[in-house]
Amino acid sequence: MTGMFTTRLALAVVCAGTLSLAACSKSSPSTTTTAASPVPADATIVENFNRSLPLMGTLNYAFNMPQYGNVNVTLSGVQGANLPDGLTLNVGIGRPTGTTCSPSVTLAVGPGSAPQVTGVYGPGIYCVLVADVGALVSPVQVSVTVAHS
Amino acid sequence: MTRLIFAALLLAVGFGTGACSKSTTAPTTTTTVAPSSEYFSGTLSPRGTQFYSFSVATAGTVSVTLASAASARIGPALPVQLSIGVGVPSGFDCAVSTAVNTAPGLAAQLTTSGAASSIYCVNISDPGVLTSDTLFVVRVSHT
């Protein structure tokens, strides 16, 4: 009699504890969440500059990106005397650092009407770098368009 | 006997419930970022302007010190009042939001608090007191 009672008591305790633990476990529904890919905003803000670029010189132009989006840089014109055939200048996009612009991308490009250097960037302050790396024989006037979001 | 069974069940339920309760008291942590210093030096022409860009990684205070102004690397300091300012790079310039005219000194002459994480610039310019090229050193302290 005592043995049967002890067995039933133990069984009851185990059941109650198990039920109690099961009741507090949180069962979350199985859901699959896919983070939406942000779409870069169009480059609708347009800034232009026209400056003299000395031999082996560098131009740094800073601009503010209010939102995540596209940046399109166009070296639209290079004017000066004795321009070499197939002239290219280094054009880059980067961050202002110290007294310079530290580009994350740089390409040797010639003047044209279509953007030569493009990228997608988050909000913040960036810069465009235009540099002569030895192609010029005299100072030139460069025209650049920076389109950004 | 019934009371004994009831007591045992209460104990078991209490144990089970207690085992699954989670303590959600997060530890309190305070992170203090020590400011770092950058030095901007160069030559300022009469009526000239120069600027230096720096990146604030953690929101905090920016302190600017015009540490020295001299006509030569070796020689006495010039007791001139130059303009130093803080702003953001814009185009080919530093768009200054706050500035002060000050003589060189050891303590920061310009302090701005609440600078958010971003890129800023410190600007130095001659308000019209220089008569020749002047060497300068500016210290920028920021988080």
Task: Walk me through the topology.
The complex is a heterodimer of chains A (149) and B (143).
Chain A: H1 2-24, E1 45-53, E2 58-65, E3 69-79, E4 89-97, E5 100-109, E6 117-121, E7 124-131, E8 140-148
Antiparallel strand pairs in A: 1-8, 2-7, 3-6, 3-8, 4-5, 4-7
Chain B: H1 2-20, E1 36-44, E2 49-56, E3 60-70, E4 82-90, E5 93-102, E6 110-115, E7 118-125, E8 134-142
Task: Identify the notable features of this structure and list them briefly.
heterodimer, A: 149 residues, alpha+beta, Jelly Rolls, 4-stranded antiparallel beta sheet, 1 helix, elongated, B: 143 residues
By DSSP, the count of extended strands of chain B is 8
Tally of DSSP helical segments of chain A:
1
What low-confidence regions of chain A span 5 or more consecutive residues with pLDDT below 50? 9-28
Q: What would CATH call the architecture of the domain at 45-148 in chain A? A: Sandwich
Count every beta strand of chain A, where a strand is a DSSP E run of 2 or more residues.
Answer: 8
What do you see in this structure?
The complex is a heterodimer of chains A (149) and B (143). Chain A has a domain at 45-148: Jelly Rolls. Chain A has one helix spanning 2-24; strands at residues 45-53, 58-65, 69-79, 89-97, 100-109, 117-121, 124-131, 140-148. The N and C termini of chain A lie far apart (85 Å). Chain A is built from 1 helix and 8 strands. Chain A is elongated. By secondary structure, chain A is of the alpha+beta class. Chain A is 15% helix and 46% strand. Chain B is mainly beta and 143 residues long. Chain B has one helix at residues 2-20; strands at residues 36-44, 49-56, 60-70, 82-90, 93-102, 110-115, 118-125, 134-142. In chain B, the strands form 2 sheets. A 4-stranded antiparallel beta sheet of chain B has the order 1-8-3-6, with no helix packed on it. Chain B has a 4-stranded antiparallel beta sheet with strand order 2-7-4-5, with no helix packed on it. In chain B, a hairpin with a 2-residue loop joins strand 4 (82-90) and strand 5. The longest helix of chain B has 19 residues, at 2-20. Chain B is elongated and about 65 Å long. Chain B starts with a helix and ends with a strand. The model of chain B is unreliable at 6-21 (pLDDT under 50). Chain A binds chain B through residues 5, 8-9, 12-14, 16-21, 24-25, 47, 49, 51, 59-64, 95-99, 124-125, 127, and chain B through 1, 4-5, 8-9, 11-13, 15-17, 19-21, 38, 40, 42, 50-55, 88-92, 118-119, 121.
